[in-house]
């Protein structure tokens, strides 16, 4: 894998315009847009069948990853995909047994993911900022990696050691280029800010999200016209542009192959998963996720919490869409290299951008979300609003009485979030969970057959914030 530091690549209107890949008359393959499959064939050396199989496998393994993470009590140290297998790192035997029982490969390591994140932060604070290109956790080696400028390896390593971080915990690697962001990207269509060109990342309620370095709050855009209402850079690299009523946000991304890819949601993919990027300069390109929660230092400052990939990008690709299948992953922040020799590109997670702006992802080709099956037909309805990490008991903390039989429940959470639904039964003065819906989706359905007693529903905002509705039917 070619390693290079990320850089901001601002492009003016007078620069080369967006290139569009040659059209294709191939039909969609098993539900995937031909542009995505073709890009995987080109960039990853796969046949059509192999590309489709890989997409399906990655989707399944990412779902499994989310379920396992939620059931592990402690000691989680990251996960990654290798071929058709999911590997989950843990720090204890009990966790390893849970991972194997869930059908994944367990890897026992010394440090948990939270410990590695703290080490990464400590090492970064100790190092000379101007010399550090990027810092991230390599879950496969259970260590921290710091990419630094040429000739700075010794100084950075010494500073890290002086801060009390053991040499065996941090690998310091020199890179050829220092970071810069990648201006001018497309998720669906290009837009313009003064003398610069950027593009839609993903459509959201009333507008779209894109990279924060594309414009500051209050800046205006054209084609489509809009205003930056939220912008954060550095620290983060996201922005929300409100386009008003003149334009209609559509839940799709330009595949630069004569069509679009519908966006179905924003389930986060695992390390090792296949992802594809859409940008107005280089079109569709694919690769894999190398790390999550990476920190990158640009000349303008540091951005943290990024998705690191080996997808290529070039000037004009910043702000564009990163997809895993039909699931929105992130917004192009910056990178290095190019699409001739390869490179490294970082992405701002899309969920954080949506949450900061208080908007929802537009899915399914436009129009917003569709309630999960069964919600409208449930006998008793409930609703509420939660911040990320919060939970609420429904219809209340005292619960409700139920006769023996089957109870069904349904939750419709905010688009772009991960909301879970638990059914609990009162037992011995406490509540015990008897059924649950804990997929990576914002919507859940639960069905449980039990004995008479006192029950309650608990809605948990695993990630993301917003309003929810739901309902249930008792025997």
Automatic annotation (TrEMBL):
Gene3D superfamilies: 2.60.120.380, 3.30.300.50, Trypsin-like serine proteases. Residues 112-166 form the Peptidase S1A alpha-lytic prodomain domain. CDD domains: alphaLP-like. Keywords: Disulfide bond, Hydrolase, Protease, Serine protease, Signal, Zymogen. One of its GO terms (molecular function) is hydrolase activity. Its EC number is 3.4.21.-. InterPro entries: Pept_S1_alpha_lytic, Pept_S1A_streptogrisin, Peptidase_S1_PA, Peptidase_S1_PA_chymotrypsin, Streptogrisin_prodomain. Residues 1-21 form the signal peptide. Belongs to the peptidase S1 family. This is Streptogrisin C. It comes from Promicromonospora iranensis. The lineage of its organism: Bacteria, Bacillati, Actinomycetota, Actinomycetes, Micrococcales.
């Amino acid at each position: 894998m070619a390693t290079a530091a990320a850089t901001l690549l601002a492009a003016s209107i007078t620069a080369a315009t967006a290139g569009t890949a040659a059209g294709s008359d191939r039909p969609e393959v098993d539900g995937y847009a031909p542009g995505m499959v073709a890009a995987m064939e080109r960039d990853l050396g796969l046949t059509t069948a192999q590309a489709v199989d890989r997409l399906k496998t990655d989707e399944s393994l990412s779902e499994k990853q989310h379920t396992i993470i939620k059931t592990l009590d402690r000691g989680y140290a990251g996960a990654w995909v290798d071929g058709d297998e999911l590997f989950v790192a843990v720090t204890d035997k009990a966790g390893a047994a849970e991972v194997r029982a869930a059908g994944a490969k367990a890897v026992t390591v010394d440090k948990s993911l939270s410990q590695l994140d703290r080490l990464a932060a400590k090492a970064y604070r100790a190092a000379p900022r101007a010399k550090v290109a990027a810092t991230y956790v390599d879950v496969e080696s259970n260590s921290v990696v710091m990419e630094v400028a040429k000739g700075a390896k010794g100084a950075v390593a010494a500073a890290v050691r002086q801060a009390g971080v053991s040499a065996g915990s941090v690998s310091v690697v020199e890179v050829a280029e220092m970071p810069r962001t990648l201006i001018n990207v497309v998720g669906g269509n290009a837009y313009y800010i003064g003398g610069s060109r950027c593009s839609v990342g993903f459509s959201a309620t009333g507008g779209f999200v894109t990279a924060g370095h594309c414009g500051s709050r209050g800046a205006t855009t054209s084609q489509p016209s809009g205003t930056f209402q939220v912008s954060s850079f550095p620290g983060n690299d996201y922005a929300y542009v409100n386009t008003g009523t003149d334009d209609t946000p559509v839940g799709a991304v330009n595949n630069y192959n004569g069509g679009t890819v519908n966006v179905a949601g924003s389930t986060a993919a695992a390390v090792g998963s296949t992802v594809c990027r859409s940008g107005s300069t280089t079109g569709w390109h694919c690769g894999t996720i190398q790390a999550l929660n990476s920190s990158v230092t640009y000349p303008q400052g540091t951005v943290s919490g990024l998705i690191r990939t080996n997808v290529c990008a070039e000037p004009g690709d910043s702000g564009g869409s990163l997809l895993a299948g039909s699931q929105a992953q992130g917004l192009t922040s910056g990178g290095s290299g190019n699409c001739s020799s390869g490179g490294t590109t970082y992405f701002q997670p899309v969920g954080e951008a949506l949450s900061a702006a208080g908007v929802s992802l537009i899915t399914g080709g436009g129009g917003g979300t569709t309630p999960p099956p069964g919600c409208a037909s449930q006998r008793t309805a409930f609703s509420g609003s939660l911040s990320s990490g919060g939970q609420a008991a429904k219809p209340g903390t005292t619960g409700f009485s139920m006769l023996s039989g089957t109870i069904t429940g349904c939750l419709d959470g905010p688009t772009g979030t991960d909301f879970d639904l638990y059914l609990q039964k009162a037992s011995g003065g406490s509540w015990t969970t008897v059924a649950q819906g804990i997929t990576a989706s914002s919507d859940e359905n639960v069905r449980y057959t039990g004995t008479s007693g006192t029950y309650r529903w608990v809605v948990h905002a695993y990630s993301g914030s917003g309003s929810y509705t739901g309902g249930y039917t008792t025997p």
